[in-house]
Amino acid sequence: MPRPFSNDLRRKIVETVESGTSCRQTAGLFKVSVSFVIKLMQRVRATGGVSPAQFGGYKVSPLAAHEADLRRWVAERSEITLAELQALLLERGTRTSPAALARFLGKLGLTRKKRWQEPPSKRARTSPRPAGPGSNGSAG
Question: Which residues of 13-40 are buried (b: 16+ CB within 10 A; e: fewer)?
Fold first, then answer.
């Protein structure tokens, strides 16, 4: 991702425009886009400064407010699904995606891997037999 232009360059652009040069001419002089010069001048008029807005940064998850509830629900029902957790959160007024929920649970160290409810059969085949030579490829 590109970085914001330096404040020094921004000040020079503002000084040039304020001295009477048009935004298009200033953009050509400093080899920046016309839209950058126009938006910079709008920022200067609105805020009085040339500093860029925050670039990137950490966004706090809205699920952080429900951390205790999530831990309790997972402790009470170890086999609870993401969809069930999502429904419980929706009842409390928090909409979230399954992916965001899985990421948040991962940060808490609560994985949602499912285990089979019953052990595999000791007598029945659990996978199809491989196709033999000369067969059409279907198991059976």
Answer: bbebbeeebebeebbeebebeeebbeeb
